[in-house]
Design a protein that fits this description.
The complex is a heterodimer of chains A (128) and B (588).
Chain A (H helix, E strand, L loop, with lengths): L4 E9 L10 E9 L2 E2 L3 H5 L12 E2 L2 H14 L4 E6 H9 L4 H11 L1 E4 L9 H5 L1
Parallel strand pairs in A: 1-5
Antiparallel strand pairs in A: 1-2, 2-3, 2-4, 5-6
Helix pairs in contact in A: 3-4
Chain B lengths: L1 E3 L2 E3 L29 H7 L6 E4 L2 H4 L17 H10 L4 E6 L29 E3 L5 E3 L6 H21 L5 E10 L2 E4 L6 H17 L1 H9 L3 H24 L4 E9 L6 H4 L12 H10 L2 E3 L10 H10 L2 H8 L13 E2 L3 E4 L8 H8 L1 H8 L4 E4 L14 E5 L5 H12 L3 E5 L5 H13 L3 E7 L1 E8 L2 E6 L1 H5 L3 H14 L7 E3 L4 E8 L9 E8 L6 E6 L4 E17 L2 E18 L3
Parallel strand pairs in B: 3-4, 4-7, 7-9, 9-10, 12-13, 12-14, 14-15, 15-18
Antiparallel strand pairs in B: 1-2, 5-6, 7-8, 11-20, 16-17, 17-18, 19-22, 20-21, 21-24, 22-24, 23-24
Helix pairs in contact in B: 1-3, 4-7, 5-6
Classes of the chains: A alpha+beta (128), B alpha/beta (588).
Chain lengths: 128, 588
């Protein structure tokens, strides 16, 4: 059986002079094994995310990683990959078909796995 | 086929030609995908709508710098031979020359020696699409000066070749686009370093020629976006002018086409069979019609372009749509007996600077109202009607007061005086226009009814014409239901003749209309609605009976049960089903 994975492509927006050194990690695409994920419901249940913007964005990369981990845990997934736009652009240069495109996430992205304490939620966990 | 005194009406959709790489979609013919010895045979077998679109593959004709081949070396680059094959088979073809990246071709049509700098979208992500053969076609920046220089040389050589070979058929510039977040975006648009370098050069130039613009940009960083747009349009016009100049004898206009499956997210969706669904593509297809952009399914493979999507493409991309993409007459020309999309509403804006019809429609609740009551039966136009005769007699026109010029404002009053139905959003409309409107009413002794219903509304009538003003800002803060009720009430004033449909979620439907013919004298008009169920679930739809409408027939039933009852037509659709129903409209 294939692994249940999530693929996240984000871009980093460098801070402008007026933003006092705070950049933004903005999620561009978020896919799981069923296709593009609508994160609206997930975000509504989780406070403090993208509250002032229609984009899902984070001030630090660690927060993005935490978010993906939480998603993986809540959906009972195995792992995820996050990939920056910059690395994606490098990866796509050498990709020529759809299969290779998926490999870009694995070759150039960072793998996100749950730590031992963060267990995946079972079917019953989701209900109760 | 039935012959109605010279005009032919097909009772069923024509049978699809065999899917192949040469005819990958609708009326597109890719000559480089097969041997020239098979061109004639392929064209002879083609049974789709006319004319056939033949995009010119720059990379094929200009493989190396300064070397141009139009059949001298590679037989597949002989465009004259291709034209002769078409003429021999009595098929009409037109050439399309991309003036933007065209990512249905490798390297988006760019010769490999020029494919250097990837174009980026506004998120900084490289632009690329997956084609129907699962190949990635990357998009390169057209802001690289080397590309423009090479393009200019290529077009000059193409023009010379056309003259020498005696090719006099029409050639259109082709602007290839996709939909991102509800907006049409050309693949020409770029945010890469090539663009930034060029833009910086432009700013330096402006410092000498128009320093006030640069000063304004420094004061207001938002203005930089306007200048970037201005620069982008300027460079695009260089490509476009080049085609007009060197192919003047053939150039017949520009066709805007949108690639279905060509958005940024689509490359990921389409990389996995489990992520790609035919229902995802209906939105793009329908949206093309409301924005007068020619839809193109060239990227989609036969595995997704089947069942209801295939049927919808055949129903929608027909002879009249092709003709309309080449001219401006589609929505207003009622002289022919062919079906054309049924359009009730025209949203018009020709103001300077960026304006989002979508945002404006969303905020005022119009989007929701159209979606539920008149799906895809509206048209967005970014040019102001020049002549009253151009206007659709039955259409309802929407204008945005804050973006009108004095002349446009006067024209709207003329449009109303000529018996047309007009809405003006008077939010932020200049005070002078508000006063002029009142003076106009008084001078012409026009009766005006005024009510306060969510927004202050005034309704003036003069003969057949009506002019309704409202303030969209007052609608923004109310609930969607209230906004929808507002539009329902406003449009009810106009007494539009239409059949109401209730359909399950994700059932798509689309109306067309045509004038009645000499065999249909009981009707003024025949309306055709096609239903598609792109989902894997059973779905239902119901057309409510209405005065002045009679059900004529159902055609092309595919996995559907249609029941006619006294209160209307019940449609039960199996997964991926489709059906078309015809209704006659008559004046009582």
């Amino acid at each position: 059986m294939s692994k249940k994975e999530v693929f996240v492509l984000f871009n980093f927006e460098a801070p402008d002079e007026q933003a006092q050194g705070v950049g933004k990690y903005r999620v561009a695409y978020f896919f799981d094994e069923e296709g593009e994920v609508s994160l609206q419901k997930f975000c509504e249940d989780r406070s403090g995310i993208g509250s002032d913007s229609s984009f899902l964005e984070f001030s630090r990369k660690e927060l993005l990683v935490d978010f993906v981990k939480e998603y993986i845990a809540s959906e009972g997934m195995d792992q995820g990959y996050i990939l920056s736009a910059k690395d994606y652009n490098i990866g796509i240069e050498s990709s020529s078909n759809g299969k290779e495109l998926k490999e870009v996430f694995k070759r150039y992205g960072s793998i996100i796995e749950l730590e031992p304490g963060q267990s995946k939620r079972s079917f019953l966990d989701k209900l109760f | 086929m039935i012959d109605y005194g010279g005009s032919l009406e097909q009772l069923t959709t024509p049978k699809a030609h065999v899917d192949d790489a040469v005819f990958p979609a609708e009326n597109w013919f890719l000559y480089w995908k097969t041997s020239p010895s098979l061109w004639e045979q392929k064209l002879a077998a083609y049974q789709g709508p006319s004319p056939i679109f033949v995009p010119i593959n720059w990379a094929l004709h200009n493989e190396y710098p300064e070397q141009f081949d139009f059949g001298q070396t590679k037989p597949e680059s002989d465009l004259k031979r291709l034209l002769d094959c078409a003429l021999k088979q009595n098929k009409e073809i037109v050439f399309l020359l991309p003036i933007s990246p065209a990512p249905f071709m490798r390297n988006s049509g760019l010769p490999a020696y020029l494919a250097r700098n990837l174009a980026l979208n506004k998120e900084g992500i490289a632009l690329a699409v997956l084609d129907r053969e699962d190949e990635i076609n990357k998009v390169y920046s057209y802001f690289d000066p080397n590309i423009f220089q090479a393009f200019r040389k290529f077009v000059w050589n193409l023009g010379q070749y056309f003259t020498q070979a005696g090719i006099s058929i029409p050639l259109f510039s082709l602007d290839v686009e996709r939909i991102e977040s509800g907006h049409f975006v050309s693949y020409f648009k770029d945010h890469s370093s090539s663009f930034e370098v060029g833009f910086n050069r432009y700013i330096k130039q402006l410092q000498n020629s128009e320093p006030q613009k640069v000063e304004r940009m420094i004061e207001n960083p938002q203005y930089e976006l306007d200048l970037k747009h201005e620069y982008s349009q300027l460079i695009k016009s260089l490509y476009s002018n080049c085609v007009e100049e060197f192919l003047a004898g053939n150039h017949s206009g520009t066709i805007r086409t949108a690639l279905i499956g060509g958005s940024g997210a689509d490359i990921f969706k389409r990389s996995n069979d489990l992520w790609e669904f035919e229902q995802d593509y209906f939105y793009v297809l329908m949206k093309c019609l409301t924005n007068k952009v020619y839809p193109c399914s060239i990227l989609l493979g036969p595995q997704v372009k089947k069942n209801s999507l295939k049927k919808a493409l055949k129903d929608i991309v027909d002879h009249s749509l092709i003709q309309s993409s080449m001219s401006e007459e589609y929505y207003s020309d009622e002289s022919h007996l062919g079906y054309r999309p049924l359009v009730f509403f025209h949203l018009v804006d020709e103001g300077r600077g960026f304006f989002s019809f979508e945002k404006s429609m969303d905020n005022s609740g119009l989007s929701y109202f159209f979606k539920t009551q008149y799906p895809w039966s509206y048209h967005i136009q970014s040019h102001f009607p020049k002549e009253i005769e151009e206007l659709d007699e039955m259409g309802v026109y929407f204008f945005f007061g804050k973006r009108l010029t004095e002349e446009q404002f006067r024209n709207i009053l003329r449009i109303f005086m000529n018996g047309h139905r007009v809405f003006i959003d008077v939010s932020e409309m200049p005070e002078s226009f508000v006063k002029k409107l009142e003076v106009f009413y008084a001078e012409n002794e026009i009766k005006v009814e005024r009510i306060n219903y969510i927004s202050p509304v005034s309704k003036a009538t003069l003969g057949e014409g009506s002019l309704i003003t409202y303030e969209s800002e007052k609608l923004y803060t109310t609930s969607l239901i209230k906004r929808n009720n507002f539009w329902d009430t406003m449009v009810n004033y106009l007494d539009l003749k239409h059949l109401r449909i209730n359909a399950d979620e994700n059932v798509e439907y689309f109306w067309k209309t045509r004038s009645s013919n000499s065999f249909e004298l009981s009707y003024q008009e025949v309306r055709r609605v096609s239903f598609y169920n792109p989902t894997s679930y059973r779905k239902k739809a119901h057309v409510t009976s209405a005065k002045n409408f009679a059900f004529i027939k159902s055609i092309d039933q595919n996995n559907v049960e249609v029941k006619s009852t006294p209160i209307g037509i019940d449609i039960e659709m199996k997964p991926h089903a489709s059906v078309t129903l015809d209704f006659g409209y008559f004046e009582s």
